[in-house]
Design a protein that fits this description.
Length: about 170
């Protein structure tokens, strides 16, 4: 009797867990990339409402940017949103400034309710004949909120702009 009950519970548990919907990794990757691209484009367009819609807006949202000349750490949605919309943002995104952004070399760790993403990014801005390129590695953590991916953590690590080390001749 005891083994019959245990066997029945085990079979029921396996049946229930076997009914869970399998994670479609390729579909989730595409959805995550779309959110990241939307966040970038709405930032460039200064569409703050659109950009904000891509983020988890609570005290756990974090942003860490680091480059050759400085770093910024913003903790909580109030600080993060202020950083992205305020005077301390990296670029003056005026009408005469033309920006293109390429993301590549995506690496993912996707779970049903969260995802960790790393990619390379090349940000090119031009104003008249002045062209600036900034290369970086982006690290992002996203959470699934009401069936939609939202950004909870962004880290931008600048990989360009560092002074080249001079080699001494012997």
């Amino acid at each position: 009797m005891r083994y019959t009950m245990l066997s029945t519970l085990l079979i029921a548990a396996l049946a229930i867990s076997g009914c869970e919907k399998a994670l479609d990794v390729e579909k989730e990757k595409a959805a995550i990339i779309a959110v990241m691209e939307k966040e970038t484009q709405t930032y460039i367009d200064r569409d703050f409402e659109g950009m904000f819609s891509t983020h988890v807006q609570d005290s756990t949202n974090l942003r860490l940017t680091a480059g050759a000349d400085n770093y910024v750490f913003a903790e909580g949605w109030e600080e993060v949103s202020k950083h992205m919309t305020g005077d301390e943002t990296e670029d003056d995104l005026g009408e005469d400034l033309h920006i293109t952004v390429e993301k590549s070399n995506y690496r993912f760790k996707i779970c049903p309710k969260s995802a960790f993403v790393v990619c390379n990014q090349k940000w090119t801005s031009s104003y008249d004949d002045d062209v600036t390129e900034i290369e970086s590695i982006q690290v992002r953590y996203l959470e699934k909120v009401d069936g939609e991916w939202k950004i909870s953590f962004v880290s931008f690590i600048g990989t360009s702009g560092y002074m080249e080390e001079e080699t001494e001749e012997l």
